[in-house]
Inverse folding.
């Protein structure tokens, strides 16, 4: 019995020393490759393959959280909202603000900047809203700073959105205005 208490105490102490405060029910990944302001629900990294990547939106994270790609490359991002609430895929510097209802899919074309990582977030649950940690970033190398010229990169003029049933094309929800929030 004493061994059980000792092992339990050691495990709790090791957890406190290694990871700081514990977060219940949500395992955390290793240190993010890019530093973002505010909370980040890190669901890992994945490399962009042949200019394409699928990103899952859920309550309240992106998976993968950190897509890895070459600087200046064009990336086709296939989004699917697997959550129970509405989410966005927002990159203000590119005028991208795609809103997805639960079970909705969308495809967004993103041209990455040539000088650093490009952050994205859900404007309902990310750093500018409730800060529930729903944010991530495209990056090319660990420790990379955020881009200072993201506004020179571009997004395609269209977004294709589909529901869980038959594919349909929705009105693009990207903005071409400088404000970046689609208003």
């Amino acid at each position: 019995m004493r061994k059980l208490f000792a092992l339990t105490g050691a495990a709790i102490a090791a957890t406190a020393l290694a990871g700081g405060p514990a977060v219940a029910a949500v395992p955390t990944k290793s240190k993010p490759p890019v530093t973002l302001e505010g909370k980040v629900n890190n669901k890992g990294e994945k490399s962009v393959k042949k200019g394409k990547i699928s990103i899952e939106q859920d309550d309240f994270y992106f998976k993968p959280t950190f897509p890895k790609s070459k600087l200046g490359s064009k990336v086709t991002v296939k989004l699917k909202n697997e959550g129970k609430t509405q989410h966005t895929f927002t990159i203000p510097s590119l005028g991208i603000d795609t809103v997805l209802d639960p079970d909705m899919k969308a495809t967004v074309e993103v041209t990455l900047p040539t000088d650093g990582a490009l952050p994205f977030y859900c404007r309902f649950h990310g750093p500018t809203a409730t800060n529930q940690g729903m944010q991530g970033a495209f990056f090319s190398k660990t420790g990379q700073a955020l881009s200072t010229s993201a506004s020179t990169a571009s997004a395609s003029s269209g977004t294709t959105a589909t529901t869980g049933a038959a594919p349909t094309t929705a009105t693009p929800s990207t903005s071409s205005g400088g404000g970046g929030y689609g208003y």
Q: What stands out?
A: The first helix runs from residue 2 to 19. The first strand starts at residue 45 and ends at 47. Residues 4-28, 151-158, 162-183 have pLDDT under 50 and may be disordered.
